[in-house]
Amino acid sequence: LDVGWNCTAALWGAKDPADDTIYLYAEHKRGQEVPVVHAEAIKARGKWIKGAIDPAARGRQQADGTKLIETYRALDLNLTEANNAVEAGIYEVWQRLVTGRLKVFSTLMNLKAEYQIYRRDEHGKIVKAHDHLMDDMRYLVNTWDKIAAVQQPSRSIVDAMGAADATAGY
Questions:
Q1: 13 pairs with which residues across the strands?
Q2: Alpha-carbon distance 137 to 11, whole Å?
Q3: Residue-wise pLDDT tens digits, 7-34
Q4: pTM (2 decimals)?
Q5: Taking each helix axis from N to C terminus, what angle separates 62-74 and 35-43, rounded to the nearest 10 degrees?
């Protein structure tokens, strides 16, 4: 979960333990809304799913970030602070992409649009613009071990999802 006034974004993934592949299957991206609107959209995908939130809360002071985390937790989201290491995170995402262990559903149009413009500047620094879902992808991959440890939903939910593995995160 990457939060902010101009844009709040969330990305959902599920991991196949047989081959260590993470599948990104859903996204939420919306700007200029209050946290309750985002929280309801996130819970609609599965209240049982644990997520990770950027502890820096889009570059605000750490105290503001902590307050936003508390706000979203009070709205009944099960959140842990994401590992937001940038270079190590980009490397891990890239490794998964090139080895086929990170797959993106074709329906994630906002993520694909961000991926196409994600780049480094002339000094080798990541351009921090229009990258909310890209940040989410990094958080999800780097924080997977924390967010995948959730109580598995009932068999009827798993059957309805058509999933072989019920571990998921956003």
A1: 24, 169
A2: 7
A3: 999 999 999 999 999 999 999 999 999 9
A4: 0.84
A5: 50
